Amino acid sequence: MSATAVLLLSCPDQRGVVAAVADFIAQHGGNIVHAEQHTDDVEKVFFQRVEFELDGFGLGRDEILNAFSTVSSRFDMSVDLKFTDTLPRVGILASKQSHCLFDLLSRWRSGELPAHVAVVIDNHPDHADLVRHMGVPYVHLPVTPESKEAQERALLDELREQSVDLVVLARYMQILSPLVVNAYRSRIINIHHSFLPAFIGANPYRQAHDRGVKIIGATAHYVTEELDEGPILDQEVSRVSHRDSVADLTRKGRDLETIVLARAVRAHLEHRVLVYGRKTVVFG
Amino acid sequence: MSATAVLLLSCPDQRGVVAAVADFIAQHGGNIVHAEQHTDDVEKVFFQRVEFELDGFGLGRDEILNAFSTVSSRFDMSVDLKFTDTLPRVGILASKQSHCLFDLLSRWRSGELPAHVAVVIDNHPDHADLVRHMGVPYVHLPVTPESKEAQERALLDELREQSVDLVVLARYMQILSPLVVNAYRSRIINIHHSFLPAFIGANPYRQAHDRGVKIIGATAHYVTEELDEGPILDQEVSRVSHRDSVADLTRKGRDLETIVLARAVRAHLEHRVLVYGRKTVVFG
Amino acid sequence: MSATAVLLLSCPDQRGVVAAVADFIAQHGGNIVHAEQHTDDVEKVFFQRVEFELDGFGLGRDEILNAFSTVSSRFDMSVDLKFTDTLPRVGILASKQSHCLFDLLSRWRSGELPAHVAVVIDNHPDHADLVRHMGVPYVHLPVTPESKEAQERALLDELREQSVDLVVLARYMQILSPLVVNAYRSRIINIHHSFLPAFIGANPYRQAHDRGVKIIGATAHYVTEELDEGPILDQEVSRVSHRDSVADLTRKGRDLETIVLARAVRAHLEHRVLVYGRKTVVFG
Amino acid sequence: MSATAVLLLSCPDQRGVVAAVADFIAQHGGNIVHAEQHTDDVEKVFFQRVEFELDGFGLGRDEILNAFSTVSSRFDMSVDLKFTDTLPRVGILASKQSHCLFDLLSRWRSGELPAHVAVVIDNHPDHADLVRHMGVPYVHLPVTPESKEAQERALLDELREQSVDLVVLARYMQILSPLVVNAYRSRIINIHHSFLPAFIGANPYRQAHDRGVKIIGATAHYVTEELDEGPILDQEVSRVSHRDSVADLTRKGRDLETIVLARAVRAHLEHRVLVYGRKTVVFG
After folding, report:
1. Given A38, A214, A234, which is nearest C214 (Cβ)?
2. Do residues D41 and B245 touch, judged by C-beta distance below 8 A?
3. Does domain C89-282 correspond to CATH entry 3.40.50.300?
4. Complex ipTM over 0.90
5. Tens-place pLDDT, residues A81-130
6. Is CATH 3.30.70.260 correct for A4-83?
7. Short-list A123, A113, A39, A28, CA closest to A71
8. Per-residue pLDDT tens for B224-235?
9. Do C196 and A196 touch (CB under 8 A)?
10. D122, D228, D234, D244: the active-site residue
11. Catalytic-residue membership of C62
12. Is residue B241 within 8 angstroms of chain C, CB to CB?
């Protein structure tokens, strides 16, 4: 498929928005290959994702936003413009557990993720070998309660040096300080190993076992200052029973974590996500 | 919510369709409350469902199609126009088993189905009492191999007399002749108690048990001349194990059947379904 | 199938329990048709459900427990003995919403629930007609904050008069006082319309909508003094999206509620549930 | 956990089997840690899996079967005895696609699979590097229609040399001849990328797309002479829509394939599977 442009729009709900956007693209000879919209009837906000072919489009890439401003200012729109042949640069943060890290790298290698994995930053040294084997820059940044502040500065330096667009916490197991969270607002995806908002915080599988639930879950969400309270991107669940020990829940949960994190990362990388308040619109 | 109009469109994929449709509605002062589109990249066909408010729209209901013909003829469109305050009239065909019949009637009574249940036609007499208790006209039309032709003529008469728009086979257990199928093309929904195309024909739960599957399913589809080969509207599945007898599969399957049939009927009644070839587009 | 006896056993985990139980049944000429066991490796508790044919068994029904006491006292067992041809008497408590009530009655009528529905007690008058039509005694017991104490006494009187073994809260929407809870410990099943422990208390679908979850759930649990904290019997979930309003969640949730409540009630009625602490063992 | 022995038993259904097996273990001072049984009421066959601690058991490992023969001959039992500290040796056969291969190796490395991966045999050369990096012997055995017979002989030699107990076809994409199938009856697990028995044979995702199904699946089964007709171990499904191209189905299906294959392999390796006729009993 040839390169396309993606417009991610939101504005107060009002008449004529869809027509104005479609007109703009049609007037410049564009061909819409995918369009999806959503109106939040409570908040009265309109959201739209429009993807159109760049081939044959009458405007250069850096002219589009300027030309579109007649539309966006008329409707008081927030606009984000992406090009699908510009691969976002991803930084993966990992710790001892490897399943999410390796799963993301495998998917990336097989071409499933439209991204460039720019760097893996790891606070445990175990995965250096395999990450490098897969051709990805690897940085080991161990962390202790004392070194945490310095480690985060080094981490931020590394992310900036690698021009990272999206940070993925692949079971990173560290709470990021507001310094990092603010630098990558709506651009840090975490996987929490529970069905949020159930079992916030530490040891969710043990909490689930103690409560005797019959289904466990995993949740991918954007990181905000409040622990496990950020906008949810995706969730997945699996049936369990009284037979399952904490170790069984942990094992079964790993499959949920890898799948739901990969789906959420993919949605972000394909520019299908809009964040508003503590919620997301994830287009299909 | 006030009344809305729904345009269901399909045409050869081409530039400018979205803009032309949106323009038409905007020019007449319409407010789009929901729009969804799909392009089949293989067949090069464009599909769209556009729902807009009638309140404040500049055209009368019977003027819309005529005015829209400038757009539809330009793009060689098939057009279907529906009004959401005009409830489709549904005829339910039932046999001995009651779960799908009662489930549909319960949903209808609770206001979940935007329809008017015009008649229940039953080839077993068992449900007369409860159907009538729920305030629905009940017709008992028993069928034998010898009487089948006459029974179908009576059935067609009844459907026509009640001005039925949609026929729902709620485990009707009779194969309809082409006479009926042609009279209600893409307007007869059947529930088959298997995960089609697995286990076509009779006794699918026994077939599933004999094959030793670990998941069973149910499929709602439009009825065509070929048995269980019509366009699929929806499917649902449930995990089973070696412990499940044919009776267990039948019991577990009943829940699948009621849910998937209700979902499919609801999608049709909300004008969210477009049929092409042996497939469906079911908008969300 | 001929009548069977069910032994529900729990005791400290120790060697020889399985053999002792199986020996007891074999010595009296019994044929085990189903046996399932579970050991909680953390609490070191052993649980077993053994079902054996009464036909040909060498002991009369009222001799079994006494004869079994040699085994049960040796292993310090809790023992419960049930006969599958003695149908438990069920009292259903309902309020305005009808879906769980009608679903249970439909399943009961179709023979899916091994129970006798002894009474429906309703604090809204709407369902009297249909309940009576289905041949079930109906009692209307309206409740206000002022009348609650008196209403509960009347409710208890009714349950006792009908010799109710199991109380099912089919979206009853009232918090039962300790008086009722203690009278029917581990014998009151409630359906909560969330994936517990998420969204305890009122308006869980609104809470779920506000949090922006991507999956909703329903939970069947035994009622204890603490609201929504009792032992969980079963849970079920359904995928939702940003498109779903609170009304959509409510509608989708209804299907979860009916299915998970019916499954939980069925497990209880088939004597497949053992409660310990705040957990359940639900055998397959 | 200390080492345990697993007895996998099947025999004509008859009274006293459970007691006889439990007695045998109790008499030798064994402690049963898990027992599960199943009776096929149609075929009148009894199946049981009993796992007991070897620590403190009064018989040596090579004395058990002999001593048990008094029980097994009395009930005409088929008996299989396994020790959980004897890791089965697994040979993985792979082709171009890597997802199932890498997933199995990742799980094995993380300790999730109780096995020794003895060899990876690959008919494409692409994965040599990573397999060796993970410390597994790698054999490249390319195959053409002309070389197939010779390749299979080399393959069998390799499997025998490595004393392989279980062969896993990780999207191997070749139909094995009866020579191989017979040598490893009920010991070759294949993953078929459809919900069998739907879409047998080549290109199941294309078949699924053409049929317009709303759910796709994957099936793990033992390989027999008849293509995709062997006993099913496990299945998994995923919802799809009209939006999904064949490429989308293929991508979504990969996650199903890896998960269902891993689950089936794990069940086999934990000695939880009994095969009879074209069915399996998979204990929990």
Report:
1. A234
2. yes
3. no
4. yes
5. 999 999 999 999 999 999 999 999 999 998 999 999 999 999 999 899 98
6. yes
7. A28
8. 999 899 999 999
9. no
10. D228
11. no
12. yes
